[in-house]
Amino acid sequence: MVKRIVVGMLAHVDAGKTTLSEAMLYRGGGIRRLGRVDHGDAHLDTNELERQRGITIFSKPVRLTYRDVDLTLIDTPGHVDFSAEMERVLSVLDYALLVVDATAGLEGYVDTLWRLLARYGVPTFIFINKLDAPAADAARVLESCKQRWSLDCLDLSRGLEHGDMEDVALLDEDVMDEYLKTGGISDESLARLVADRRLFPCFLGSALRLDGVDALLEGLERYTLSPVYGKQFGARVFKVSHDDKGARLTWLKVTGGGLPVKSSLATEFRHGDEASKESGSVAEVYRTAGDIGKNGRVETRETVDQLRVYSGDSYRLTDCAQAGSIVAATGLDLTRPGQGLGCERKDLTPVLEPVLSYAVEAEGVDPHHLLSALRILEDEDPLLHVAWQEQLQEIHLRIMGQVQLEVIQEELERRFGMQVSFSQGGILYRETIAAPVEGVGHFEPLRHYAEVHLLLEPTEPGSGLSFASTCSLDRLDGNWQRLIMTHLAEKEHVGVLTGSPITDMRITLLDGRGHIKHTEGGDFRQATYRAVRQGLMKAHNILLEPWYHFRLTVPQKNLGRAMSDIYRMKGSFSEPQADGDTVELEGDAPVSQMRDYAIQVSTYTHGRGHLTCFFNRYRPCHDQDALVDSIGYDPESDLENTPDSVFCAHGAGYAVKWNKVEDFMHLPGGQYI
């Protein structure tokens, strides 16, 4: 029976991941000639930008058959700027192959990959690459894997050796019984331990010279299990792209049942999606045609026109995708990465998020056409956030890093013929509150009426926004309550300190009132927005800034300078770890302080130092008052996000300032805090 598994290739940039993929394809008979990244002819680097830069930017699948195993390899980006593309793939993997450079060791981003694999529960194989290089030290790297990741990282290049059997047997009672009875451990038992993430097989070699590749392929055959899928249809979307003719491709893995061509799928559109902020968008089409559910979602149905099975740049069409298959579907316009279809109803929220902001400058380019082009790129990469700043009349991007910015610039020119530049980027701050507060919004111009009372409460750091209702149906009809939930979720609400998005908060509908004759849906939108804003104006607000987790390697003689710099940047680090004539510092520091530090490290170490940073989480800003003053945001002048309410008297509407709303509101308040 053929075993069908999906394996993701992950690594820090330049570890040889794509080269290993080429070698596996070659040894498995998938290609007849080996390509090379440095020659620009690698089979998996199909994009022109990838060939130019010599790095993987976009994830892509390739298929090969090795003995009785049908392997789908998904090559993922290794550069930290494109880590969001990598993270999306993790949700559809059966196994991961983590490639480590034997000369560089466990660089900082590899630790991030390991933690993400643990979070997503992906069984992991390790390949220690580049053993042909003079500075390679496989024993040292393997020992680092044991010390930093798991003691159960075992070298299985030559199978399970007798000296390791007892240690493996201790991992499981059934395996111990088998070992005591037979004096050995079967491949099936080892495969079960691997699938449970209790054993991490390691292989050694050189992908460029094809050393160790056969042993790795044999290990993937011996130490993996066929996933068990249910009969009910399910699928997980992990990527959206467009082919050379502009057709939108939804990349997904079928996780249950089967997906025939011309299937009608229930897809959800979230009102909070950026596209909904543009007039004439697909959101407007389904705003009334679909069924509005909780959390601002609209359900509709779309038909799968084609199912493409890709291998590199080529594909074949299939009539039905069976469980375990990776396919690209056409005809689906409302899907998004992380979305679950069928029985996979829960969407996945990524761990990684962008922390830098840039303004787009494009002289002579129609801003509407530019915004449309950027929306296409945003559709393909949901962690590229595109926003139109009405007050500034500018397009702003939120991105992961400088290299991603350069790729966006090149993609706009190559695909859309637009030449753009970017102004100096800013830091993406967030805002939250310190204690619960009730917000009230009232909207009552002539022949309109709505009042909304909301409870805003702080939640755990990193929890984002959540919405709930404790309002009785006797107080407010269920249709109006669902509409308020929609309006809470459809908008990116901003704080009152700097105008940054709010987070780590639960917003609960407490009470509301409509009018049987005069209330329209837009009235509750206005009242809801104003209630959020009025609550924030009364709250004790906290400004949050993003922090990096960093790994800094410098020569011993530069240690004092490095430590002094980190203290100056308000960062912290654990005890320095010496390794020969170099020393490594690992710790955390604000993004605002470290964003240009890599250039300084290269300068004062004369190119011998190396800094790796990745987003960790948001923390309270270390200089909130000074930063708020420097930004100079006036929440009462932000007409797009007004905290004031509108009341009616003598046949005319009039505005009431936010701090006077409680004196005029129609429903009782204040009893919930």
UniProtKB/TrEMBL annotation:
InterPro entries: EFG_II, EFG_III/V, EFG_V-like, G_TR_CS, P-loop_NTPase, Ribosomal_Su5_D2-typ_SF, Ribsml_uS5_D2-typ_fold_subgr, Small_GTP-bd. PROSITE patterns: G_TR_1 (PS00301), G_TR_2 (PS51722). Keywords: Antibiotic resistance, GTP-binding, Nucleotide-binding, Protein biosynthesis. Residues 2-228 form the Tr-type G domain. The keyword Heme does not apply. The keyword Signal does not apply. SUPFAM superfamilies: EF-G C-terminal domain-like, P-loop containing nucleoside triphosphate hydrolases, Ribosomal protein S5 domain 2-like, Translation proteins. This is TetM/TetW/TetO/TetS family tetracycline resistance ribosomal protection protein. It comes from Bifidobacterium asteroides.
